[in-house]
Amino acid sequence: MCYGGQRPPSRDDITTSAQSTATVDQNMAAVENLRRRLEESEERLERARAREAELGRLLEAMKKFVSVMEILENYLNRRYREQLSRLYS
Fold first, then answer.
1. What is the rounded distance in angstroms from the CA atom of residue 42 to the CA atom of residue 36?
2. 10 with 18: CB under 8 angstroms?
3. Are 12 and 19 in contact (CB under 8 A)?
4. pTM of this prediction?
5. Is residue 43 a contact partner of residue 36, using CB atoms and an 8 Å limit?
6. Torsion angle of C-alpha atoms 40, 46, 48, 52, degrees rounded to 10
7. According to the UniProt entry, which residue ranges have a biased composition of type Polar residues (predicted)?
8. How many whole angstroms from its chain centre is CA 35?
9. How far is residue 20's CA from residue 7's CA, in Å, rounded to a whole number?
């Protein structure tokens, strides 16, 4: 083989190249692992946001219910006082 102005690869060069390939493979595996974990985290975040939105809707519905119950309570208390005042007048 002709290497031009370069020297032929030595055994150390070949070993270093094999180690580099192994390192690249490990790095690729790590990157894929991180991508998978990121995707899982994004999915969990999406589910958490959906749950938060649902809880927010439930909270608003409960607030409306409590408001209606307070109005009803005030009305019934007023009617009760009016009836008591008529009874003792």
1. 10
2. no
3. no
4. 0.58
5. no
6. 180
7. 15-24
8. 16
9. 20
